[in-house]
Design goal:
Layout lengths: L2 H27 L3 E3 L8 E3 L3 H22 L5 H24 L3 H6 L6 H7 L5 E4 L3 E4 L2 H21 L6 H20 L2 H21 L8 H19 L2 H7 L1 H12 L10 E3 L2 E3 L7 H8 L5 H25 L1
Antiparallel strand pairs: 1-2, 3-4, 5-6
Helix pairs in contact: 1-2, 1-8, 2-3, 2-8, 2-9, 3-5, 3-9, 5-6, 6-9, 7-8, 7-9, 7-13, 8-9, 9-10
Length: 323
């Protein structure tokens, strides 16, 4: 990694930090707020803070394209633009959902459209996937027309569903994109590295506002973006299996919620004496952790999942560096 890539990271972090300071009071004044359900007083917190994440990511991505155009840095700007377009399609869906509450069934399928930019650029590229212990498998046209849009839709929806606790979305995202950055460095893939560092910086900048006690929530616009950038990075870098492994906690949460028919209410904990307790029948992975621990603080719960994500990150790095 050169100083140029490090510069992308710094620009993304500073942009997200500045935008957060600018946006949060204005979002609250405009009434874009949500209740923090895991606090006894249930304070109102700014929603749609994910705009700061998108702003940081965009600033770094456009800077990368600018430097390549005028100074000839070693990236393919078409791949970066495809990732940016994918992110913006998902961001638009997130904004519409935050404002209009799109039905869950519709929201699950709309992200398939976000795969079109990546389908276009990958149509002339590799259609293979690398699997640890198995090797390279060529899926041909099915990779382009089926696996890419499904990958984008699944990653964005899973990231959006596994949310609701101060700092959890950004904390786990930081671990994910630190991992994809290391994978990109090991493979010498500058496009994947640029995308990963841009998102890593944006999430670190926004974490200042999202950590406990949160001043802003990412909202659907931020959570969908996290999944979209992860999918874009691993597709462009040909590390799709690594992306799937990094999303194992999200997948576990999905199956638990699916077994409970995707409840829209009651996902949070019951607050008593500084701890969160699960209902008699847990309906999400965080609630299973609450029940297993017989009550846990919100900070402790978030730390558990950040560490769990780090465990899967270590597994990914061990598998791929060994390959």
């Amino acid at each position: 990694m050169s100083l140029v890539e490090l510069f992308y990271f710094i620009v993304a972090a500073l942009t997200a930090l500045v935008l957060g300071h600018f946006l949060i009071p204005r979002l609250k004044k405009a009434g874009f707020v949500g209740k923090d359900m895991n606090k006894p007083e249930r304070p109102e917190v700014a929603e749609m803070g994910g705009f700061a994440i998108i702003g940081g990511f965009t600033a770094a991505a456009l800077l990368a394209i600018f430097l390549q155009t005028f100074f000839g840095t070693i990236i393919n700007p078409v791949l970066i633009m495809a990732a940016v377009m994918t992110v913006y399609i998902l961001a638009f869906i997130g904004i519409a959902d935050d404002l209009l509450s799109i039905p869950q069934a519709v929201k699950a399928f709309l992200p398939l459209l976000a795969g079109i930019p990546l389908i276009a650029v990958k149509a002339a590229g590799s259609t293979t996937m690398v699997f640890p212990f198995i090797g390279v498998i060529d899926f041909g046209i099915w990779y382009i027309l089926v696996l890419i849009p499904i990958g984008i839709a699944v990653a964005s929806n899973l990231a959006n569903m596994f949310a609701g606790f101060n700092g959890m979305e950004t904390g786990m995202g930081i671990i994910m994109f630190a991992t994809t950055s290391l994978l990109a460095i090991s493979a010498g893939n500058m496009e994947m590295l640029t995308i990963s560092l841009a998102m890593l910086g944006a999430l670190l900048g926004f974490f200042w506002f999202n950590k406990y006690p949160s001043k802003a929530f990412p909202g659907d616009v931020g959570n969908l973006t996290i999944g979209a950038v992860l999918a874009s990075a691993v597709i462009i870098g040909n590390f799709e299996t690594a992306g799937a492994l990094l999303m194992v906690p999200y997948i576990l949460d999905f199956f638990i919620k699916a077994a409970n028919r995707f409840p829209s209410k009651g996902w949070h904990g019951n607050y008593r004496n500084g701890k969160l307790y699960a209902p008699d029948k847990p309906i999400s992975l965080p609630q299973f952790v609450m029940k297993a621990s017989r009550g846990i603080s919100e900070q402790g719960l978030v730390l558990f999942f950040v560490v769990l994500e780090a465990v899967f990150a270590i597994i990914v790095l061990a598998l791929y560096f060994k390959i």
